[in-house]
Amino acid sequence: MRPRMRRRAGWALGTVLLLAAACGGGRGGDGDGDGGGVPADGPDVLRVLAGSEIRDLEPLLRKAAGEIGVQVRLTYTGTLDGAERVASGRAGGELDAIWFSSNRYLSLIDGAQARLSTQTKIMVSPVVLGLKPAKARELGWDKGRVSWSDIAAAARQGRFSFGMTNPASSNSGFSALVGVAAALSGADGALSAEQARAVTPRLKDFFSAQRLTAGSSGWLADAYARDPRVDGMVNYESVLLGLRDPVTLVYPDDGVVSADYPLTLLASAAEPKRRLYGRLAEWLRTPAVQREIVTGTHRRPITPGVAPDPRSGAAQLIELPFPNRRGTADELIATYLDRVRVPAEALFVLDTSGSMQGDRIEAVGQALVALTGADTSASGAFSRFRSREAVTMIPFNDRPGTPVPFAVPERDPAPELARIKGFAQGLRAGGGTAIYDSLAAAYDRPVTPGHYGSIVLMTDGENTDGSDYAAFESRYRALPEERRRTPTFVVLFGESDDGEMRKIAALTGGAVFDARSTSLSGAFKEIRGYQ
Q1: Rounded Cα gap, residues 204 and 341, in angstroms
Q2: Which of 60, 68, 368, 397 could lock 353 by a disulfide, CB 3.0 to 4.6 Å apart?
Q3: Cβ contacts of residue 248 below 8 Å, gap of 6+?
Q4: Rounded distance between C-alpha atoms, residue 264 and residue 271, angstroms
Q5: pLDDT category, 38, cuts 50, 70, 90?
């Protein structure tokens, strides 16, 4: 399941979305069904578990069916969820290959290497800083040498601002976090937990300049384009090159972390599928296809002799060291979420009308309980409510309910998480559905200065009470500009009004997550990457 929006790159921690790419096929629907006319399996079908950043290759993959007789059936998932699925062996028998932006995290999980066979790198995109040209010139970064230490110093001084994806939800953010930590620590080998802890104060300096967060690189690029306050982005080079308004790319001379997109055969794949994999991997590295990858996605080619995008940096990039233990990587992400990043302020506007009676109100409670730490998977652990975070619950039926605020402390968050759990388990359903009055009540609450603000709207029906969409839109547009910057992430559930809910997301710069054919817990967990 993915928010329906234009994507460029990035991966998110969420539930699985199935999509297929085939000759003459198209984009499938949300949920766990197949799309695009490709069968679940067959002698010419290669079943691939992929990160969502591969989505922009779908038009190219459709050509593979006609040119080499390989139909690619893509199942999209979050990289951490996908890594756990592969390492546990649950992918065997259901899938033949995986295709993430990187296998680095997967390789840190005990037993994962035994699940993998051949790995073929297809393309490359380093994670770098892109700045508006005027800001790059002001800082003197449009020419000459720049290090991550220089960038961190300017960030501490408030000389520029940037957006970056959530490292717990997007590989570009994770790569940036690892790269900055490695560079600032001066690590000349694999980044250790001790080095990561020692560099935490400098990381806090660096991320004090972050003004945008996101669960995917594509959504971040869209949010950046809408927000004139933000000077730049840390993102894939390919995403930065694809922006409508050009940016100056800053390649730190102390190194970067790059995605190399390895198409990887699973050790459990049957021999006929191995042959399909071999044909596809070979075809993807042919000069003609590599040139299409460059022109269509702005990624760097892996095949010698194929020219990269002429706007790519010409200097040889230094690859920064990566942690060699999963515990170090996980601790680095947790440190970012709990101590380093700008804290979040999340408002949940929750439908508790009569139509939510029974299983539906129970599902809302379970989804919220999962965010208090009940979900012990890697993605669940990182998507729980974090230290320093402000959370407000606004239940509603025929009118907005009384807001219930929570503040998760930096130390000993367990008691406050228990309070949220108690609230979730105490939800009861009854009454009508005042969607727009309740959403307006959320926008009436100003975001605490220095916090990332976001609203989650979950409803299972149409508006039956209070003001309508037109009245809400008029009220929203009259808000101060600062409040209008708070996005609303809408969760479609039950019989919710698809059209009007998408209008809310578009109006506020948010996104839509469709939980009607999947799980509400999965939708809530995925949204956490954007908060």
Answers
A1: 7
A2: 397
A3: 130, 131, 132, 133, 136, 137, 141, 142
A4: 15
A5: low
